[in-house]
Amino acid sequence: MDDGAGSGDGDQLSGRRRLLAVLLAMAMFVLVVDTSLMNVSISAVVRDLDTTVSGVQSAIALEALVSAAFILIGSKVGDLIGRKRAYVLGLLGYATGAAAMTFAQSLTAVIVLWAVVGGIGASLLLPAMQSLVHGNFQGAAQKKVYALVGAAAAIAAAVGPLLGGFVTTYLSWRVGFALEVVIIAVVLSGIGLVRDVPYTGPRGVDPIGAVLSVVGMGGIVLGILVWQEGGESVAALLFAGAVALIGLGYWLVQRKRRGAPALMDPDLFRSKVFRLGVTGQMLQQIALGGTMIALPIYLQMVLEYNAMQAGLSLAPLSLSMFAVALLAGKKAGDRRPATIIRWGFALVTIGVAVLVPLVPRAEFGWALLAPLVVAGAGLGLLVSQLNNYTLAPISEERVSEAAGTNSAAGSFGLSFGLAFGGAILLATLSIAFTTMAESSDVLPPADQQHVARVLEDDAEVMSNTQLEELLAGRPPAIREEIVRINTDARPLALQAALLVPILAGLLGLLESFRMMREPDTPPAAQGTTAGLL
Fold first, then answer.
1. I need a surface site. Which of 151, 181, 236, 353 has the fewest CB within 10 A?
2. Contact of 420 with 224, CB cutoff 8 Å
3. Rounded Cα–Cα distance for residues 418 and 411 (Å)
4. Does the record's keyword annotation contain Transport (predicted)?
């Protein structure tokens, strides 16, 4: 098998190995485009499943959280059962989630099958994919495949809003998820091309570390989601999450001292560059998550855009991120990565900050063009540098574990940004709506109390059209006043939600100055490896 996986001189892609590379890229494309499809389809999903915006937003955040919470465990599972088997199980898990979205009739099915099962599938798939690329290709061919998979992820991020918007508007959001199932089936049809990569390291497990990592990340994000939904025990969940994360750090250090198997090696964090890079990755994803939950809600619930219009409006952000990431990767030259990262966080902060005064004034999505391009350019600079900066000091034999840790931090940041941005939006909406209702000279006291009581139980972003339908039969003056309050309250809520990515960008900017004080580290691992996760 001269053209088989892993054969030949390792410098060229031909025959079966080229097909395998394409299939791996297709798998990555599906992973990335999935979230874009959900973001631009929020209003359609809410309508078809007869649910709420906050419920769908919670499912999106939960999917990112499950992927983050289990990715370190997924990497270890792949070591124990085989990377090829973990790759297949991950694809099947993701296909289960996509199939559930195709036929779902309730939010419960979305949460259980798409967010939880699909999220666990992603946590198995991502680390297994990296190991399989590393083991099935060598030399220049390996670099080409890493570049191809990274390009597939970047293209999915760029065209995802447009593709999702087109499918949702002219066909159905269910068709988009059905197409994901078809693509995964095609990828699985070529599983015979994959050569398994044996694991030669220690095979011990760290169940306590695994539990602490899930409880830590899960407790914090679930606490925010429960707060958003008006539930109880919010403080207990947040406290449990924080204690579990602190306990995880102590546990890993003790396991390392005893020479016992650990979920991850705490010595990775002895490198200040790695610590700064992981923090930067998390802050970048918080900024992205906060932006990508606030803007689609604004476009679909305030401007009442359909999915295609929302996708077109978001295109400047995703396309500029894609273009700048490619350009910066090629033209960075001798510029210090820390300098480029600093400019990235600065542009993200400026771009999102400019959105804040525009939100109550913009009457169409393209009014947001310039700040979205600026913010997208900043994200593109970060994408082009952060992964390689973080993994530069890590040796080749430890790069897989380090990349998994980096990916977990990014996924946790994304889920935190989605959850916290949505929670701030709904909390501000509830406060603003209640305050305006209580100060209204038109609404009688009984209506003011009713509004406050309803919002206390379930604050919800609602378009004026939906609100007018809900208020049908009420006196015209009451109806007009509540619609006016809704019109005035929603921009305030969305402005408050945008403070989440702004704060993350400012913290990232401060972090970049600390990066500038550290000397540049010659890459110890392959730079393209970092770009995958």
1. 236
2. yes
3. 11
4. yes
302 secondary structure, DSSP code: I
Provide the token pair at 127. Answer: 């680390």
What distance in Å separates the CA atoms of residue 131 and residue 400, rounded to the nearest whole number?
Answer: 7
Q: Give me the helix-helix angle, 272-297 and 15-40, nearest 10°.
A: 50
Max distance between CA atoms of the chain, in angstroms, equals 82
Give me the mean pLDDT over the 312-341 stretch. Answer: 81
* 270 CB-near residues (< 8 Å, 6+ apart): none
Give the percent of the chain with pLDDT over 90.
Answer: 18
**pLDDT for the residue numbered 353:** 95
Can you say whether residue 285 is alpha, beta or left, with left for phi > 0 and alpha for psi between -120 and 50 degrees?
alpha
Q: What is the 3-state secondary structure (H, E, C) of 223-258?
A: HHHHHHCCCCCHHHHHHHHHHHHHHHHHHHHHHHHH
pLDDT in tens, 204-255: 677 888 888 888 888 888 888 777 666 667 788 889 889 998 998 888 888 8
Cα torsion 498, 501, 502, 507 to 10°: value is 160
The burial class, CB within 10 Å (0-12 / 13-18 / 19+), for 517 is exposed
- For residue 116, the tally of other CB atoms under 10 A from its CB is 19
Give dist(CA 467, CA 473) in Å, integer. 12
DSSP string for residues in 419-459: HHHHHHHHHHHHHHHHHHHHT-SSS-HHHHHHHHHHHHH--
Report which residue type is found at 142. Q
CA neighbours closer than 13 Å in the CB half-sphere of residue 393: 17
Q: How far is CA 241 from the centre of its chain?
A: 20
Which helix (H) or strand (E) segment holds residue 510: the answer is helix 476-516
CB neighbour class for 187 (10 Å; exposed up to 12, middle 13-18, buried from 19) = buried
Tens-place pLDDT, residues 10-44? 455 567 888 888 898 898 888 888 877 887 888 88
CA distance linking residue 214 with residue 211, whole number of Å: 5
Nearest to 359 by CA among 505, 494, 496: 494
Amino acid letter at 396? E
Phi, psi of 202 (to 5 degrees): -65, 140
List, as own/partner pairs, every contact residues 155-158 make where C-beta atoms lie below 8 angstroms and the sequence separation is at least 24, other chains included. 155/29, 155/322, 156/28, 156/29, 156/30, 156/31, 156/32, 156/33, 156/36, 157/32, 157/36, 157/318, 157/321, 157/322, 158/318, 158/319, 158/321, 158/322
